[in-house]
Amino acid sequence: MGCCFPERRAENCKFWLRKLITFLCSQVGVGSILCGYTILGATVFIAIESPTESRRLLEVWSLRRQVVGELWNVTQNYNLIHAEKWEEEVERTVVNFQSSIVREIRLGFDGSSDPIWTFPAALMYSLSVYTTIGMMT
User: Fold this and answer.
1) In this structure, how many other beta carbons lie within 10 angstroms of the beta carbon of residue 93?
2) How many CB atoms lie within 10 A of CB 42?
3) Is the pLDDT of residue 77 over 50?
4) Considering the entire predicted model, what is its pTM?
5) Of 40, 62, 93, 121, which has the most beta carbons under 10 Å away?
6) Which residues fall within 8 angstroms of residue 85, CB to CB, at 6 or more apart?
7) At residue 82, what are phi and psi to the nearest 5 degrees?
8) What distance in Å separates the CA atoms of residue 82 and residue 75, rounded to the nearest whole number?
9) Rounded Cα gap, residues 6 and 4, in angstroms
10) Do 115 and 46 contact (CB within 8 A), yes or no?
11) 64-68 CB contacts, 8 Å cutoff, 24+ apart
12) Distance (Å, rounded) from C-alpha 45 to C-alpha 126?
């Protein structure tokens, strides 16, 4: 009886492997593989792109806090007694802030605090890759 068990196990394994291959080669199976691959692709896009997007947003928030702090210090130091000096310092601070924001925009900041790479957006990106490749063949 001990020798029959491995043979039966091998037959059982072959049976289920044939069933799996038959299913995967059917329209439902191919559709399931495509859906799974699309969901996996969307998850990968989010994992790759979200940290960069978050870093840009944190950098801009930091710049904003820094500028507000600098403007507060300028206002406290010069107040209205030294109006010309106050205007010079505020203008310098704002120009620095503008150039920093331009740099962040060139690096990918779009002015929105909402995340770009949500799951539906990443899913649509994955689907657009399929349609683009499909149109080229």
Assistant:
1) 18
2) 21
3) yes
4) 0.47
5) 93
6) 78
7) -110, 70
8) 10
9) 6
10) no
11) 67/93, 67/94, 67/96, 67/97
12) 8
Residues 6+ apart with CB under 8 A from 7: none
Give the per-residue SS3 of 62-79: HHHHHHHHHHHHHHHHHC
Q: Stretch 60-89: mean pLDDT, rounded?
A: 80
Long-range contacts of 49-55 (CB under 8 A, 24+ apart): 49/116, 49/117, 49/122, 50/115, 50/117, 52/108, 53/108, 53/115, 53/116, 53/117, 54/115
What is the number of other CB atoms lying within 10 angstroms of the CB of residue 86? 17
Q: What is the DSSP letter of 115?
A: -
- Residue 81: per-residue pLDDT: 73
Per residue in 43-66, pLDDT tens?
A: 888 888 777 777 777 787 888 888
Per-residue tokens: 60: 């801009």
pLDDT score recorded for residue 50: 76
Among 106, 125, 110, residue whose Cα is nearest residue 46: 125
Predicted pLDDT at 134: 58
